[in-house]
């Protein structure tokens, strides 16, 4: 096991302006999540070349913020309140380019389009709307909406030392060959007793490195941190929230350190096709330590999965909403798996 300081997102997500509308970024491997099968459980090869594009999403967000701080500084609209992403192709850890087009510049709000490319191929297209929250004078209504059912209470200090009665700390240890290094940078608290609603998964999340706190532009990472609710329907699924809680309680009972993040351990994976994020409340400039994430699914049909995510802060404020479309795919059908299988076949 390799002991290593968790890399902060600020360190990993460096954005550099190349020109007024082009930015250079680097997708750090420590914040990449390979669409990988667990070799010990599945008769398919390890898939380490593809990554889920959650991290590039956050890089795009940071590039948009920089764009409004520099090229569009005269607009005085520093706050991104709505984003939509279309995932076109799998990405890779490494260098990438983000080009931004000013689609509509207005007095109250402005819209830009951002395209992240690698190797001359577009990977993600995104639209973002920016405003100045300090000048907002639109209609606000106190709707009284709360999350139902309400989750059990949590003591954050006690959960970190495995002493909370309702929640258990789960994490992955960094390892150089782990296909899910991204998970070694976060701490996730799962319910010890899962909710009876199989269409819902919930958790509390924080960054493992105490120097890193959740900021608004990191919400793209946060909304993708839940275990897939669809996996709750598969008895014994190694990627369902019940299994995460069970193994974390076992590590705590045995006094063991968590093993390296193993990545995907089931014969299904869920690549994101599209994602929208509505930022209700900006997080404070200094960031926050903990956020609550609830994900739910209403239908899984013909391989299409809808995901609805709510993000709340510890004060009970709704921070963000996200609606996503995933595909539920047999992992052996992924492009990387087919390529690896063909390569293996050629050796025979």
From TrEMBL:
Question: The Acyl-CoA thioesterase-like C-terminal domain covers which part of the protein?
Answer: 193-326
Q: Which SUPFAM superfamilies match?
A: Thioesterase/thiol ester dehydrase-isomerase
Database matches in InterPro entries: ACOT8-like_C, Acyl-CoA_hotdog, HotDog_dom_sf, Sec_Metab_Biosynth-Assoc, TesB_ACOT8-like_N
The residue ranges of the Acyl-CoA thioesterase-like N-terminal HotDog domain are: 55-129
Task: Give start-end of the signal peptide.
Answer: none
- What is the name listed in the Swiss-Prot or TrEMBL entry for this protein? Thioesterase-like superfamily-domain-containing protein
In its UniProt entry, the species of origin is given as: Cryoendolithus antarcticus
């Amino acid at each position: 096991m390799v002991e290593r300081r968790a890399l902060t997102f600020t360190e990993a997500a460096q954005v550099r302006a190349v020109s007024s509308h082009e930015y250079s970024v680097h997708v750090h491997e420590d914040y990449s999540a390979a669409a990988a099968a667990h070799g010990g459980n599945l008769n398919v090869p390890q898939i380490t070349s593809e990554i889920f594009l959650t991290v590039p999403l956050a890089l795009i967000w940071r590039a948009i913020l920089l764009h409004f701080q520099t090229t569009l500084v005269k607009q005085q609209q520093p706050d991104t309140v709505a984003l939509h992403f279309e995932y076109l192709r799998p990405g890779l850890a490494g260098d990438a380019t983000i080009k931004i087009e000013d689609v509509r510049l207005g007095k109250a709000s402005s819209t830009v389009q951002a395209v992240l490319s690698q190797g001359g191929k577009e990977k993600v297209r995104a639209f973002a709307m920016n405003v100045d929250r300090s000048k907002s004078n639109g209609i606000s209504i106190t709707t009284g909406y709360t999350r139902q059912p309400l989750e059990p209470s949590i003591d954050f200090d006690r959960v970190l030392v495995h002493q909370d009665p309702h929640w258990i700390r789960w994490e992955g240890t960094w390892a150089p060959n782990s296909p899910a290094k991204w998970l070694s940078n976060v701490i996730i608290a799962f319910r010890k007793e899962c909710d009876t609603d199989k269409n819902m998964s919930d958790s509390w999340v924080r960054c493992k490195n105490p120097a890193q706190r959740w900021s608004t532009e990191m919400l793209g990472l946060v909304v993708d941190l839940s275990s897939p609710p669809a996996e709750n329907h598969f008895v014994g699924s190694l990627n369902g929230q019940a299994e995460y809680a069970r193994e974390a309680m076992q590590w705590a009972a045995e006094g063991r350190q968590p093993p390296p993040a193993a990545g995907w351990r089931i014969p299904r994976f869920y690549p994101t096709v599209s994602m929208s994020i509505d930022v209700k409340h900006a997080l404070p400039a200094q960031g926050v330590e903990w956020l609550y994430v609830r994900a739910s699914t209403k239908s899984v049909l013909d391989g299409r999965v809808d995901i609805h995510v709510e993000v709340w802060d510890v004060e009970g404020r709704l921070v963000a909403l996200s609606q996503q479309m995933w595909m539920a795919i047999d992992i052996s059908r992924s492009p990387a798996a087919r390529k690896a299988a063909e390569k293996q076949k050629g050796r025979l």
